[in-house]
Amino acid sequence: MSHLQTTWLMAGGILALLVLASVLGAWLKLKVADGNPHSLIDSLNIRIRAWWAMTIAIGLALLVGRVGVLILFAFVSFTALREFLTVAPTRRGDHQALVMAFFIVLPFQYFLVGVEWYGMYSVFIPVYAFLFLPILSAVKSDARNFLERTGTIQWALMITVFCISHIPALLNLRIPGYDGRNVFLIVFLVLIIQSGDIFHHVCSRYFGRHQIAPQVSPNKTAEGFVGGTASAVVLGMLLSWMTPFSVTEAALVSLACTLMGFFGGLALSAMKRDRGVRDWGIMAEGYGMLDRVATVCVVAPVYFHIVRHWWSA
Amino acid sequence: MESTEICRRLVPEAISWALTRFTRLVTGAQARWIGCAPVPVQRVYFGNHNSHADFALIWASLPAELRRVTRPVAGADYWNASAIKRYIIHEVLHGVVIERSREDSAVEPVDVMAEALKAGGSLIVFPEGTRNTTDELLLPLKSGIYFLAQQCPQVEFVPVWMDNLGRLLPKGEIVPVPLLCSISFGTPLQLQPAEDKDSFIGRIRAALLATKESAQPGE
User: Fold this and answer.
1) pLDDT band at B105 (very low <50, low <70, confident <90, very high)
2) B218 chain-A contacts, CB cut-off 8 A
3) B164 has a pLDDT exceeding 80
4) A101, A187, A205, A309, B80 from A192: Cα distances, Å
């Protein structure tokens, strides 16, 4: 399939799906919920609106090209970092570390991805930010809850900057026979994760009996896990034409991604619980950025390394 | 002559617009009117004080028509210190500047505030008197707000609780971090007939803490 055909097929397919989902959502709200609040239908509709926003944002970024994609995900990182650090237990002494995180570490990480310096963008935050930021806090001579404070700042950077930056980094991979089509790696990832998420939600709601970790995330059930994973794998196989993977490979990659997403998401939920908030975006009135991209975050580096190791030249 | 007149009027307007936008963008805060509505009633907004930005946030959170008649009360020692600060506080914010230390002032600060209220405006005050840099929620409140209420008993006193601003720009720091802040307006209270100082100050304090509680996002 030519590049142009793939693009049109994908754009048309996604738009058709979104329109279908919006119509279905509106119909459910009107007929099933009678226009009244309904937890499942309302959360479906919130997700559908978020997909529209996501699709439009990604579409515009792709039109601009590589720089557009970098700027889009840098903005996603910024917003998510803001939400994460808003509920972090930092103290006055951490101010300079926070300033560094927002205004130096974040832009520099995206700069490194932009200049395709793989050796540096894969260690900059895990090694250099990790070692350097606690020093800025320590010189303020306030040791109270120090480990918790610095640990939270590091986790915030890892999840919201390091992990998310691996999505635009997919554009850096050189895959033989796949030139100029790397953006579909991003689209594939987002589609797999988002649909796995929605199927998980629906299966949990209708068949969910066994909660996996009720104290951490009451909505995650074994039934939802099976349904979400299975449907993501099937979707991955159906979408293999947009990837460098064969159908079997697409199934395996999708399986790895949904497994990582499910359990990684569980760990992020536990952090959220620990901070005493229901949603990361609680301060922003409604659903936040991090609530939407949390699963994609934890999957992105793993997906990146799978593709890099087995497919890139 | 005419062009200087235009400058005198437009420049403060432009700075005020920019300041409002900037504050809303950096703090990400949306005003929550929990205990009252943003209506043009003469009020004293009293808030917790953690940061210089408190000032700007309350002011930026008011709708434009209320902002025009609401004057922040500010300490002369800080705001008269440089030409830029003087310009901002007088021409842009239309602040009521008071002397915080009693010795170098001929008039009582409370009288200056009461005069501003009698002229018809609303006020923004910080009853803690100075920025709170401790781990406590509130410093002990100054009694000025009671004497102000005595002089203007018909005025509504509206509690305002701001979260996270102290983390956004702690005292002594220059670069703000863009953490999300929140600002909530609580239930107004008025001085009761024959109410004494301790009772009123106690209610002011309780109203601030109640506003904080009602603003909690919760589980």
Assistant:
1) low
2) 278
3) yes
4) 30, 9, 20, 20, 60
What are the boundaries of each domain within chain B? 2-215
Residues 6+ apart with CB under 8 A from B219: A276, A278
Q: How far is CA A305 from CA A188, A308, B160, in A?
A: 15, 5, 50
Backbone angles phi, psi at B156, to 5 degrees: -80, 135
Q: What sign has the CA pseudo-torsion B166, B201, B124, B216?
A: positive
Biggest alpha carbon distance in chain A?
A: 62
Domain of residue A299: give its range: 3-310
Stretch B92-104: mean pLDDT: 78
How high is the pLDDT of residue A162?
97
Q: How far is A245 from chain B (nearest CA, A)?
A: 41
Distance CA A295, CA A306 (A): 17
- Residue B180, pLDDT > 80, answer yes
What does the alpha-carbon distance between residue B167 and residue A161 come to, in Å, rounded to a whole number?
21
Give the residue ranges of chain A where pLDDT is below 50.
286
Q: How many domains does chain A have?
A: 1
3-state class (DSSP) for residue B96: strand
Nearest CA in chain A to B171: A92
Would you say residue B106 has pLDDT above 60? yes
Type and span of the H or E element at A256: helix A247-274
Q: Rounded to an integer, what distance in angstroms lies between the CA atom of residue B160 and that of residue B186? A: 6
Q: pLDDT tens digit string along A268-311?
A: 988 888 887 777 766 555 457 888 888 899 999 999 999 999 99
User: At the top level of CATH, which class does the domain B2-215 belong to?
Assistant: alpha beta
DSSP letter for A28, please. Answer: I
Are the beta carbons of B188 and B36 closer than 8 angstroms?
yes
**With contacts defined as CB-CB under 8 Å, which chain B residues touch A105?**
none
8 Å CB contact between B177 and A99:
yes
Smallest Cα distance from A149 to chain B, Å: 13
pLDDT, position A49: 82
First-last CA distance in chain A: 21
